[in-house]
Design a protein that fits this description.
- The complex is a heterodimer of chains A (129) and B (274).
- In chain A, 45% of the residues lie in helices and 19% in strands.
- Chain A has 5 helices and 5 strands, in the order βαβαβαβαβα.
- Chain A has a 5-stranded parallel sheet with strand order 2-1-3-4-5, with helices on both faces.
- The longest helix of chain A has 16 residues.
- Chain A is globular and about 30 Å long.
- In chain B, the strands form 3 sheets. In chain B, strands 8, 9, 10, 11, 12, 13 and 14 form a 7-stranded antiparallel sheet that branches. Chain B has a 5-stranded mixed sheet with strand order 1-2-4-6-7.
- In chain B, helix 1 runs parallel beside helix 2 and helix 5 packs across helix 7.
- Chain B is elongated.
- Classes of the chains: A alpha/beta (129), B alpha/beta (274).
- At the A-B interface, helix 1, helix 4, strand 5 and helix 5 of A face helix 2, strand 6, helix 5 and helix 7 of B.
Chain lengths: 129, 274
């Protein structure tokens, strides 16, 4: 599992969802969780923020979660950052698109803290290798 | 045997056959090393055609996960049917298979006309979303036409989404009396609010967004609708009375929950060819 002092960036244009993800992270034990209200702002924050992993919604104004993922994967410094997409859409084409872009993991809403924990454990194992 | 595979970007896709047993397990163990040479990040198994998986395959998947561990790659499993998903969960193999995009088989009617069978995905999605996201149990009552009877409460807040497809134009609204919604919100966040606030409005839209997302997948896959993405708006108080809908017919899907009554209202115009 990621260390509990990891710096987490939660990206979602819906305040409720940011609050839910933040609460789920807190339930798991993460202490340092920052929020961004859209992909563009998240991208700015990622340049300087030294985050350990990102949990991002897909459908957002300014820059979608997929677009943000592609920017992260294309960046020399951020390219290997663990990036989890969290979305209400479970359309197969969308899932495949995320995988093709190199998503670390994918969570379909609704989710429980346990589901998020499992996904984070899988992701940390993958990125620890 | 040879699997049908393809590499797309950082993802390596493997299409699984209808029956997955020892033959496939042995083949998987034999082919994984060659696949790894493709340099993928994600190894994705597509089970859309798969009806059965024997336990031999579980061991083979565990073997594959070990092989991927050194290179930091991830396994994903797509389109597992619910019965297979249940078997995998019960065998403690969720972490190995990492299933996403479950192949939902609820609502088995194949009727295409806009009738009660098309509302089943909304009912199922509502129950699942409230249970998972808010730990609230909800049970559907018998649907009825709005014109025959009003709902027995005032609506305090509603999430409203415009819906369009080649056979359906209308609105789906998730409507709560204030007390019910405050209870659901409190349950979601472990809070103890006593009245509806502006901060809570966002939650009504997001709940509807998740319900719609779930129902849309089933309606598009199973019932061959072509519902598009849509963003909900939230209405409170006096705004509810000026909700603009080009409605001809409205169906009420009532629910009873541990937080109180609420309903989904589906309104549509029959101006498209079905």
């Amino acid at each position: 599992m990621f260390k509990l002092d990891s710096k987490v960036l939660v990206v979602d244009d819906m305040m409720t969802m940011r609050k839910l993800v933040k609460k789920a992270c807190a339930d798991i034990g993460f202490k340092d969780v920052t929020e961004a209200p859209d992909g563009a702002q998240a991208w700015q924050m990622l340049q300087t923020g030294n985050y350990d992993f990102v949990i991002s919604d897909w459908n957002m104004p300014n820059l979608t979660g997929l677009e943000l993922l592609k920017k992260v994967r294309g960046d020399a410094k951020l390219g290997k950052m663990p990036f989890i997409l969290l979305t209400a859409e479970a359309e197969l084409n969308q899932i495949k698109e995320a995988m093709t872009a190199g998503v670390s993991n994918y969570v379909v809403k609704p989710f429980t803290p346990d589901i998020l924990r499992q996904k984070l454990e899988q992701t940390s194992q993958k990125h620890a290798a | 045997m040879e699997f049908k595979t393809r590499l797309e970007g950082k993802a390596f896709f493997v299409e699984m056959p209808a029956s997955v047993s020892k033959v496939e397990s042995d083949a998987l163990r034999g082919q994984i090393k060659a696949w790894l040479e493709n340099g993928f990040s994600n190894l994705t198994f597509d089970f859309k055609d798969t009806m059965s998986i024997t336990k031999d395959f579980y061991a083979a998947m565990s073997f594959v996960k070990q092989q991927l561990k050194a290179g930091g790659q991830q396994i994903f499993s797509l389109n597992l049917k619910k019965s297979l998903l249940d078997d995998i969960k019960n065998a403690g193999m969720n972490q190995v298979f990492n299933p996403i995009g479950e192949n939902r088989t609820k609502g088995t009617s194949t009727k295409k006309k806009l009738d009660v069978s098309l509302i089943e995905p909304f009912i199922a999605a509502t129950m699942e979303v409230l249970k998972t996201q808010a730990q609230v149990d909800a049970h559907p009552g018998k649907p009825f036409l709005k014109s025959t009877s009003p709902v027995p409460y005032s609506i305090g807040i509603a999430g409203v989404i415009g819906v369009g497809s080649s056979s359906f134009t209308g609105v789906v609204a998730l409507c709560f009396p204030e007390k019910t919604f405050v209870g659901i919100y409190n349950s979601m966040f472990g809070e103890s609010n006593t009245e509806l606030t502006a901060e809570m409005e966002d939650a009504a839209g997001e709940i509807l967004n998740i319900i719609y997302g779930q129902a849309k997948v089933v309606l598009n896959d199973k019932f061959k609708q072509d519902l598009q993405k849509a963003l909900p708006t939230v209405l409170r108080g006096e705004k509810l009375s000026v909700r603009q809908v080009g409605t001809q017919t409205a169906l009420i899907l009532p629910f009873e929950s541990t937080c109180g009554l609420f309903h989904i209202e589906i309104e549509w115009t029959d101006d498209k060819k079905g």
